[in-house]
Design a protein that fits this description.
Length: 306
């Protein structure tokens, strides 16, 4: 007789409850069927597992040793069953997202926190990179989702615009321009200004606006990402114009949000690999990203109208 799962099931039940009758009740079968399975198991393993006295069976030392191993196996099977249920219900797994620095400070943390409320067993890995590297990571399937700055259409990916929200003017809370409801290019003439690096496309676009309006900035510090620019504003170094997501990470600091009269959209893109099917877990995380984005932009409107 070959070892099989039914023989082990009868053995496990008998050892767990202590009687053949009890095992039969648990397994919804007859007592003779369980007794027969126990005898077949002994033949298969070539060991005496029970001493029999009438209707009673008394486990041998070998039976207790074997039970330890069988019980481990049954517990592993139950774990696999629970894991399968959690995977089906999107409660287990890992998501890897590569994002632009603009989203890495507060936005991604908020999105992951919201996602984890409904998917507590899922691990999220966040990698911060510049847009060209994000595109490479997604195209090569080294990450599940990319959240890139700019409107990009990299080869080997599917892509959709994530946001086109206007950039905002961020000022120290004691700055004289806080008295204005919105800030024009002329308002910033000769003002202490925190600039982004000269190679940044958004910085180049902003510079062209100032040049067209004959505005001369007093650049006091040049930084290479919007988070550093917002930190400089919070410390009173000067004013800046940056994307709304980085700005909102500083809403609890001593800063004031104002609209910039020249609408400068901050465009960003969600990208996925063409060669990796969109699974339910990644789709659920994308929903969290979109809901978090909408919440951020609604909050931004409140701050701009304050």
């Amino acid at each position: 007789m070959q070892l099989n799962s039914r023989l082990l099931e009868c053995f496990h039940a008998t050892m767990a409850v202590g009687t053949v009758t009890g095992a039969a009740e648990i397994l919804n079968t007859s007592q003779p069927a369980v007794s027969r399975s126990l005898k077949q198991l002994e033949d298969a393993v070539k060991m005496t597992l029970f001493n029999r006295s009438g209707n009673r069976v008394v486990p041998t030392r070998e039976a207790f040793l074997l039970y330890e191993e069988v019980d481990k196996s049954f517990r592993s099977i139950r774990r696999i069953g629970r894991a399968a249920e959690e995977i089906k219900n999107l409660q287990q797994g890992k998501i890897h997202i590569a994002c632009a620095p603009a989203y890495s400070q507060g936005f991604l943390v908020s999105a992951v926190k919201a996602f984890n409320e409904n998917h507590p067993g899922v691990q999220t890995v966040v990698t911060t990179r510049q847009t060209p590297t994000i595109s490479e990571l997604v195209a090569s399937r080294q990450c599940d989702i990319g959240l890139a700055a700019y409107a990009v259409e990299p080869d080997g990916t599917e892509h959709q615009i994530f946001t086109e929200a206007a950039e905002v003017c961020l000022l120290p809370s004691d700055h004289p321009l806080c008295s204005k409801n919105e800030i024009s290019p002329q308002d910033l003439n000769q003002q202490s200004f925190v600039t982004l690096g000269q190679n940044d496309p958004y910085a180049k676009r902003l510079q062209s606006v100032f040049e067209a309006n004959d505005v001369t900035l007093k650049a006091v510090i040049e930084v290479h990402n919007s988070i550093m620019a917002a930190e400089a504003v919070a410390q009173g170094v000067g004013v800046t114009i940056i994307n709304p997501f980085s700005a909102l990470s500083f809403k609890h600091r001593d800063v004031v949000f104002r609209r910039f009269t020249n609408k400068l959209p901050f465009k960003s893109t969600i990208i996925r690999s063409k060669f990796q099917p969109l699974n339910a877990l990644v789709s659920a995380f994308e929903t969290s990203l979109i809901e978090t984005r909408d919440g951020y932009l609604n909050e931004l409107e409140t701050l701009l109208d304050y």
